[in-house]
Design goal:
It comes from Dyadobacter psychrotolerans. InterPro entries: NarM. This is Nitrate reductase associated protein. The chain contains 9 helices and 2 strands, in the order ααβαααβαααα. With about 160 residues, the protein is mainly α. It has 2 domains: about 10-85, no CATH class; about 95-150. A two-stranded antiparallel ribbon has the order 1-2. It starts with 14 loop residues before the first helix and ends in a 6-residue tail after the last helix.
Length: about 160
């Protein structure tokens, strides 16, 4: 997986939970994918706000930072639950590919009656925005924030 330096950032569509960090923000999801650790929502819920903030702001770009980040998350999980954190078997990093808009993103746009994204629009997005659209497109997400994210990213939604 190609890792791109991404500054800690919270999207406006995450504003309903950023103050409390009751849900895992996209910046943390991006970093978890980068280091290959799977964090379950019940695990996230047990962390303190300070620990959650640290996970959002810790550097996770250079190889050494990615390893340190992974160790930190694993240690948090072990300290809290006394078991090892789950690892991601594989990361489908379609947000890194700029030669086509991922099919899952186009499908979600169709499902939400949004205009399909053009390649030019896809390329104009930064890495974290593309990551967010891919994550919001995948099963397990109700997708309600998909069209909100498109509007936030200045891409025509509904």
């Amino acid at each position: 997986m190609k890792t791109v330096q991404v500054s800690p950032f919270f999207f406006a569509f995450e504003s309903d939970f950023v103050d409390t960090l009751k849900c895992v923000p996209m910046i943390v999801r991006y970093k978890l994918d980068s280091c290959g650790v799977k964090l379950k929502l019940h695990e996230w819920a047990k962390f303190s706000v300070e620990q959650k903030q640290k996970l959002a702001y810790l550097a996770c770009y250079k190889e050494s930072e990615i390893k340190d980040y992974g160790r930190f998350v694993k240690q948090l999980v072990f300290d809290q639950f006394r078991y090892n954190a789950s690892l991601l078997a594989e990361v489908n990093d379609s947000w890194n590919f700029l030669n086509q808009v991922p099919q899952e993103v186009q499908q979600k746009a169709f499902e939400w009656n949004c205009s399909p994204l053009t390649l030019k629009q896809w390329i104009s997005l930064n890495t974290l925005q593309r990551f967010a659209l891919v994550k919001l497109s995948r099963s397990g997400h109700e997708g309600k924030n998909f069209s909100v994210a498109l509007a936030e990213f200045k891409i025509s939604g509904k």
